[in-house]
Amino acid sequence: MSRLFVPLLILAAALFAAAPFVVANAPFEETMGLVQKVFYYHVPSAMMMFVSAFVCGIASAIYLFRRSAVADRIAQAAGEMVVLFGLIVLVTGPLWARKAWGVWWEWDARLTSSLLLWMIFLGYLLVRRFGGPGSEKLAGAMALFGMANVPFVYVSVNYWRTLHPKTSVVMTLAPGMRAAFWFSVAAFVILYVLLLTLRKRLEDRQATVEQIYLALEE
Amino acid sequence: MKRLVLVIALIALLPDAVIHAQQPPPSPTVQEEFVPVSALPQAEQLPAAPLLIAAYAFVWVALMVYVWSLWRRLSRLERDLADLQRRVPKL
Amino acid sequence: MTQFLRVAWVVMRKDLTIEMRSREIVYTTVFFAASCVLVFAFALVREGRPLEDAAAGILWISIAFAGTLGLGRTFERERHTETLRALMLAPSDRPAIYVGKLMGMLVLLAIVEAVLVPMVGLLFHAPVFARPLWLAALLAAGTLGFASVGTLFAAMLVRARSRDVLLPVLLYPITIPVIIAGVRGTAALFQATPDEPMARFWAALLVFFDVVFVTLSLWTFEPLMTE
Lengths: 218, 91, 227
Hints:
The structure holds three protein chains of three kinds. Helices cover 82% and strands 0% of the residues of chain A. Chain A is mainly alpha-helical. Chain A has a single domain, classed as Four Helix Bundle (Hemerythrin (Met), subunit A) (Up-down Bundle). In chain A, α2 packs across α5, α3 runs antiparallel to α4 and α4 packs antiparallel against α5. Chain A starts with a helix and ends with a helix. Chain B has a domain of 43 residues. The two termini of chain C are 26 Å apart. Chain C has a two-stranded antiparallel sheet. Chain C contains eight helices and two strands. The chains are: A mainly alpha, B mainly alpha, C mainly alpha. Chains A and C meet through α4 and α5 of A and α6, α7 and α8 of C.
């Protein structure tokens, strides 16, 4: 991973530098016009939020059942990613909704469940920070419940009456939009991998420092 | 290494700033006759550009703040590590 | 299997026996739940009459608050006498201990609900006896969902710092879907003509939540409680 880091970083920078041009050249959506272009950042962020919730949940399960310290560090990093990308989703969404729906927020199934998912992982971070010794396990349980929540968030929009677009939208995009969208997704995926790696590296350093402190005390 | 990351991040930001400084493309529908504001379709009544720019700006700001916080924590850790490595030979 | 059930039964009987001696948690939790209902009733009064559709929401919010309080108090008692560690040392199936604690919690919440439901019916003119079986089903399924997650987290938090404030912080985001489903189903039943298909839909969703939550809790209880 360390050898790939700088090339991936340059690639991510190139993709994000090109993204505004790609998005500007994408065709306008019929009913929403310009503001629909938030879609190209909003949906990839949501995808990364869900992916990260799964990464955190699976890593937490490995930590709980195999006692793997590395899995615990990945879980911590992924937990922060969920909160970060979730924050992006929860801010860009209302900015789009203000124009498209006329309101900033609506208590429908998709928005409510997304907010709750975000809060579950915010609770995850709070527990890890303020829970005291042994809080990693409790946080792991939180992450598992959070991961179980993700499929519910995803399908909620298909089964309840809501203003939010359904999940079929992504698979039925117009060709011009499709290219721009998957371009954005690629950029966000690489960004996600980079940030996750950086954050995990931070955790590794933290663990090393703590080990040295412990060794010094002996 | 850190400086390289910072330079690349700044380069990635530049074209973004250029694009957002430009005028947004004109609305696809052209008015043929006088239409009172209340009769306009919902889409015409709120300017979309500020919302779009705010959304993209927020994404950048959030990512930058996060990267900066990672940087800060990493620097503190490396300071601690250097400090510890100085103490270890003294034992 | 019978061994599992026997351990769970013994744990539950132990909790209830201890509780019956002083009845401290039951009295205080029921009183707290009743005060919640009163506070909401006064807060949502207009021209001397409470809001029409508030009954379902107030009922479930009071159950959630009382449940959080009861969970905290029950496990505080465990922490105080270090009995939880003693339980963990016993050579029995860990999930059985969890089920025993959960059943004890369900009994407590059932007592709370037995008091709250008539009270809500009285104060808000809600037709609580129109479809009693459906209402009981909704309450049972919702309480099980809430209590299953609550028991798991409260047991884990016994040894943690800031446990009093962390329990709501962790519990509510996960159990709010349960509360929402309970409120919607109950509101459907409290309408002038009770909407049974709607109540059935929400009850089915609650059962789905219950299955997921209980399964996850049983699965994670052992690794969480072992050092």
